[in-house]
Amino acid sequence: MTGLCIFIAALVLPTLSESGKTYLPTWESLDSRPLPAWFDEAKIGIFLHWGVFSVPSFQSEWFWNSWNNGNPAAVEFMKKNYPPNFTYADFGSQFKAEFYDTDLLADIFKDAGAKYVVLTSKHHEGYTNWPSNYSWNWNSMDVGPKKDLVGELATSIRKRTDLRFGLYHSMFEWYHPLYLNDKSNNFKTNLFTMSKTLPELYEIVNLYKPDVVWSDGEWEASYKYWNSTEFLAWLYNDSPVKNTVVVNDRWGGETLCKHGGFYTCTDRFNPGVLQKHKWENCMTMDLSSWGYRRVAQLKDIITINKLIYELASTISCGGNILINAGIRSDGRIDPIFEERLRQLGTWLKVNEEAVYSSVPWKFQNDTITENIWYTSKQLATSKAVYVFVLDWPSKNILTLGAPQPSSSTKVTMIGHNATFQWSKLSSSGGMNITFPYISPNQLPSMWAWVLKLQNLNN
């Protein structure tokens, strides 16, 4: 009971933040908080879905819900592979994480070029990947790995990299009795919120000091049921990460794409046009699931070309990309996911100038040629516009409608030392850029190429 009293006190005793402003538990006040600059500059994060659902690793991370609701494929899977009285809780002892090498994972994420990582602390099944005081006998210390999975990864990330560490947390749990009781009362009671969800949130923030709190599982009830604004006021005013933390928009059924630090709007949100508010494209390398699937085939996995397209189109429109990998129950990341991440890292080592700390240009994609995306950056003496060329141009001539070149415009390819020849398309703007003949072993990248335009009129 002592822990519950402490977190309730935190709700009602806000103090002055270091910024000199006290944020009130209202959306008007909370939404006025500037987003910490590191998040927009970072551009790329890694998302990790991991939990007891990684043991059956069938269909998706929603397997328990699917099986419980009588999905024929899920029912047949259990009938063929498990005894009649087997319950979902019995998977807990099989979740062992015996090959969980957090130093290796940290190195992979660093080599991928990511700037932050978000680990699942708890999914909708209710199992916590840390030894929570509020999840008795359904957490990673009591059942399964006998480890603090969150703490071990946080330590390795901070010891071996400069990545920011973040945590995903589901607000609801499908079958928790207190949640089901509140739900049956039309959420006029909030025993589950006060005894489970909020204590967990305070616990993970105080223990692990995440720079991202990625909320989910909010949609069945109002933010008032979840006491979201009270928690966020504490997070912004008094928490140990009050000056660096960022949050998303999943804090109640009416908050998605309306309130919070950055917007996610929908899973795999990639609008293709510039957004007025900072947003994030959370997407999956397995095109069909967030959790690990043993039956996934190569055709189900995103190609590196498509991944770079997602990155380019996202950051051109002002977003960040959060690239998800499902982790095996033994703690390993699948080799195909590792390959995609390392391929991305190889590409970023060449083209990072056009990605990190970039800002959208006045055009996001080109007005003539498809699969062309733009970013920009203020350099020491001029402004550079970066052109993401996802397909090598036919006959080595790239036609662009958006740029308005000047007589001193310079065109180069990042990672290559040649200056490209160009000609004006018309008196109103646009340009034709001639790509030189480059042998494959001299190409700076295997998959996509970035041109750097300097001294444009626009």
From TrEMBL:
<keyword id="KW-0325">Glycoprotein</keyword>
<comment type="function">
    <text>Alpha-L-fucosidase is responsible for hydrolyzing the alpha-1,6-linked fucose joined to the reducing-end N-acetylglucosamine of the carbohydrate moieties of glycoproteins.</text>
</comment>
<protein>
    <recommendedName>
        <fullName>alpha-L-fucosidase</fullName>
        <ecNumber>3.2.1.51</ecNumber>
    </recommendedName>
</protein>
<dbReference type="InterPro" id="IPR013780">
    <property type="entry name" value="Glyco_hydro_b"/>
</dbReference>
<dbReference type="Pfam" id="PF16757">
    <property type="entry name" value="Fucosidase_C"/>
</dbReference>
<dbReference type="GO" id="GO:0005764">
    <property type="term" value="C:lysosome"/>
</dbReference>
<dbReference type="InterPro" id="IPR000933">
    <property type="entry name" value="Glyco_hydro_29"/>
</dbReference>
<feature type="site" description="May be important for catalysis">
    <location>
        <position position="282"/>
    </location>
</feature>
<dbReference type="InterPro" id="IPR018526">
    <property type="entry name" value="Glyco_hydro_29_CS"/>
</dbReference>
<comment type="subunit">
    <text>Homotetramer.</text>
</comment>
<dbReference type="GO" id="GO:0004560">
    <property type="term" value="F:alpha-L-fucosidase activity"/>
</dbReference>
<dbReference type="Pfam" id="PF01120">
    <property type="entry name" value="Alpha_L_fucos"/>
</dbReference>
<dbReference type="InterPro" id="IPR017853">
    <property type="entry name" value="GH"/>
</dbReference>
<comment type="similarity">
    <text>Belongs to the glycosyl hydrolase 29 family.</text>
</comment>
<feature type="domain" description="Glycoside hydrolase family 29 N-terminal">
    <location>
        <begin position="18"/>
        <end position="353"/>
    </location>
</feature>
<dbReference type="InterPro" id="IPR031919">
    <property type="entry name" value="Fucosidase_C"/>
</dbReference>
<feature type="signal peptide">
    <location>
        <begin position="1"/>
        <end position="19"/>
    </location>
</feature>
<dbReference type="GO" id="GO:0006004">
    <property type="term" value="P:fucose metabolic process"/>
</dbReference>
<dbReference type="InterPro" id="IPR016286">
    <property type="entry name" value="FUC_metazoa-typ"/>
</dbReference>
<dbReference type="InterPro" id="IPR057739">
    <property type="entry name" value="Glyco_hydro_29_N"/>
</dbReference>
<keyword id="KW-0732">Signal</keyword>
<keyword id="KW-0326">Glycosidase</keyword>
<keyword id="KW-0378">Hydrolase</keyword>
<feature type="domain" description="Alpha-L-fucosidase C-terminal">
    <location>
        <begin position="364"/>
        <end position="454"/>
    </location>
</feature>
<dbReference type="GO" id="GO:0016139">
    <property type="term" value="P:glycoside catabolic process"/>
</dbReference>
